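<given_protein>
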Amino acid sequence: MNAGSARPGRGPFPAAPWSPAATRLSRRRFRTLNLSMMLPLLVAVGVFMLVRQAQTLLDVVVLGLGIVAVVVAFERWTVGEINRVALPCLLVAAAVWPYGVLAMDGDPQAAYYSLAVIGGMSVAQLPRHRAAAAVGIAAYVAAVGALGLARAADPGVDELLGNVVIPTGITVVLIGLMFPNKGFYDVMAELEEARERDAELAVVRERMRFASDLHDIQGHTLHVVKLKIALAQKLLHSDTARVEQELAEMYTLVGDTIAQTKELAYGQRKLNLSAELENARNLLEAAGMRVRVDRGAEAGAGATDLLAQVLRETTTNILRHSRATLVRIELTGHGLTVVNDGVADDTLPELRGLATLRRRVADDGGELTVRIEDGRFVTAAVFPAPAPAATPAP
């Protein structure tokens, strides 16, 4: 999570949070998990069968091509692009299987292994006709096995099992297992899309709130200036002293409005801590997060505004950059702590908006810290406890 302020230029709005960054992150995590756990297993099984059953250099080359096809197909499957390599990988695997049945001596498990694995990954990703493709691959495995069985001099039950029943059964099982796997990935993708939509809604609400604050500042001023201009026009020739007074008041009013607008744009406007707590809860819950607010004693008057700004900045950062599911906000008589999960790694992000607030908090005698602790992102602003009132001497 980037602890910095969300200002692509110098404006107050965060960058769009509905980019596919979160979805890409989830896919990278699943891909890393699959590559680190499943790929070594698939390669190890294939190599074990090759070493156990290959008898000639040609056997090693042919069976090795099948293992290479498995690796290529699996790598593309982890990024959802197996359809790009499915056909050539299936053709290689489909050629290895009859070689194992018709040309190799001994058990043919290493020959149908690549076809069963690649077929399972490919069929589940087809947009349509998946059942027909599954039946076709299973029928091909059975037909090639039957052809090898027919060429045997005296086929028996062992040959029937080794050439037809087991290869076909394993192929069907692997294909069938990949359908629930695809359903799991589809559900995860839908959850990510829903999360992105929730984050989009939350930031749209934040923008609407900012627009409302801007309207409160400038709308009133413009209305007053309009009335004063109309009054000055009426008095232009009859009461020049009053016109000068109105112009001076308009000048002062516009200057104050410019200052307030700048404060709003740079997050320096006086804020209401109670309103910010409620707003933070609403925004985070709208983004699908669970929020727990522990509100103890009220902070001192001097610290309230800065704590409200820290809370607003932290809320924006959570919406933009984290994958949080739980946020805890704790307010005490001398500080504020916000803890959220969903930290992508243990690297502390670059501080921008919070760095500015850190200096302002320090100028007021407080301390703002940002750290990663036990897989959670912690933002804490603490002010010294007020000195106890002196007891009058008796």
